[in-house]
Every structure is written in structure tokens, then in C-alpha cells.
Amino acid sequence: MHNNGFYGLGIAPALLDKVEKLGFSVPTPIQRKAIPIAIEGKDIMGIAQTGTGKTLAFGIPMVQRLAQKKGRGLVLVPTRELALQVRDALMPFTQALGMGVTVIIGGESMMPQISSLRKNPRVIIATPGRLIDHIERRNVRLDDTHVLVLDEADRMFDMGFAPQIERILKGVPKDRQTMLFSATMPAEIVKIASVHMRLPVRTEIAPPGTAAEKVSHEIFVVKKEMKGALLGELLKQYTGPVLLFTRTKRGAHKVAQLLRTTGNAAAEIHSDRSLGQRKEALNGFKSGRYRVLVATDIAARGIDVIGIELVINYDLPDDPENYVHRIGRTGRAGQEGHAITLATPDQGRDVRNIEKLIKTSIALSEHPGFPADRFSSAPAAQTRAKKSPRGGGWRKR
Between the CA of residue 311 and those of 28, 72, 260, 277, 334, what are the distances in Å? Predict the structure, then answer.
């Protein structure tokens, strides 16, 4: 075990002890590559999709470096859910070394955040907009930031946070360690790295756009008005937790209502839900109170739940990249997963773009109870409807 475990990565004994107690025995590829480099204090550009264990890849080295010198760690993330998830992952390690952590996110009252900032926490996990609010009100200073992490950097740019990130970067000391993690590396992120990072070591776990490796995919081509009925049939075939994606928040609400009327316990997560409602939905999904969690892409990256059996793309995403993020929610931490997409006959080109990105063709399936539709402009990969990799639509599971 010592050969392939966390030994030999340079982790301090107190933190290594925590890793063992938490039951982690074998580091993920990003952890194996990034931890030794980060512990040395070098800047890192990590290309890794969600679910690859990158929170500990930056978290353990950050906590260890903060134990060795004064100053604090700042972790910037795109969404509130991700902020809370990062906090939960880091807590065992910060507590082991007696460090305070605070989460600064929108959608919550400023007052508790101000009082937690007054306690001078060693680690701040923040969404960019709310952090800027606190900087403007002089509730927080960043001039002692010793380690800076930009997590899900591509998502922060997609959400329009570039000006806030630039501003935050100007306020942190030049002499710091910077770790940037992103599923893809568009030009604007490479630019940030060249301007704001010192000779970063680039570690790439999966080429940009590769889908999670143990996830099987299938597509049903179906008329829009048949989607709800087909969804009901698919949910009878699978027994485990299901994460379902819609394109719009209105769509999410409608599908969640439809599921409830057909006796499926469903919750919804999107930008119209308050933080309290989102937390309740996510916790209910984790605990099994809700079997189906309906989400939009904006909420997708904050959902880190082990054991999601099935991801359903009820609507195709606006951007093919989001397909990769969505299906990365199943088959996490080395488990197998399955993704089903419902596409309408006019979406052949969109499917082709996804297949190009993930460099694989997606099996077309038919359901015995539904008329078989075809794409009006057939994707190159479409020859005939294949039996799905896990029997979707063909047999009861």
C-alpha cells in the first residue's frame, strides 16, 4: 500500500493521519501529480474535470503551507454549492491544525460573514462577487494572501466573473503561490496564467473535453412532446439516484412538477431557488429523501454526490462542454455510471458537436413503447439504433 498510497507525496504526518482516517488509501491521478508540486510552493495549472479529487489536490498542500508560515489561503469558486463542498472537504484538515475557515457567498446575510471575518480565519472560500462586496466595505483585506486557488476557473469565466477575478488578483500580494484548476483551458485562462502566475507547472489529467472514463452513454431521439412519457418509462428501469438536467430554470420547475405528479420524489436546483432551498434539495438528494434531482447547468458543478446511478440530459446543453460536466456527475471516484440523453429530431448537429468534443460516438437507443424517431440531419455515427450499453429501453433492470 505504501507504494501507491499517499506516503511519499510529502504530506505532513498530522495531515497524512487524517487522510488515512477518512479512508483514502490511493491518491487519484491529479492528487498524485499535484500534491508534491504544490507542497513545494510552486504554481500549478491543473486540467482536471470535476470528480477527480482536485479539492484535496490543492487543499492538503494549502493547509500544510499555511501551517509553515503566516498569512492566509484564498479559494475562489464559481458557485455557492461548490464553496460549501470545498469547505466540507477541507474541514478535517484545517481542524487537525487548528485553522479557522470561513465561506463568503452570495444569497446569505452579510452579518454572520462579517463576524466570521473578524475572527481572522486562515482560509477563506469565496465566490468572486460577494468577496468584492466585502472588500469594498473594508471587511476583509487580501494583502496577506499567501496561497491563492482558482477552482473551476473556466466556469467562473463563463459566468462573467472575469472583471472581479482581475480585481481580486490585483489585491493579493505578488509573492504568493497560485493554483488554478479548470476542466478546459480556453485562451482567457491561459492569459491569466501567463500574467498572474510564476512559471506554473501544467498537470493534465484528461485531455480537454474527455468524458468521465467509466460512463456509458446512450441517446433516445424523441419528439419534444413525448419526452415526459419516455422519462417516466426510463425511471422505472433504473432504481438508483438520478440527476436530471434541463436547459432553463422554467424547464427544471416543470419537469420536477411532472415527476412529483407521477409519484417520483424530486427536488430542483437552479438560480431561482434560495440558498436554503438549494441546500435542502441537495441534502435531501444525498440522504435519499429525493430520488431525482432536477438541475440547470448553473447548478451542475456544485453537485458532488457519490453514487449517482444515472444522469439524464432531458434537454441538450447550450454548450457541448457542459455535456462533459453534466455526465461527470455519475461514475465519480472510479465508479461506473450511465448517461441518457433525450434529443429531438432536429438536434442531430448538436449531438455531432458533442461527439466531436468527447471523441466518441454515442449509441442510439430505441424504447419498445415509443415510435423510433431519427435525426433529420443524421450524425455521422448514426447507422442504426443499437442496444444500449446497459440495456436502457430494452429490459427491466
Answer: 23, 38, 18, 21, 16
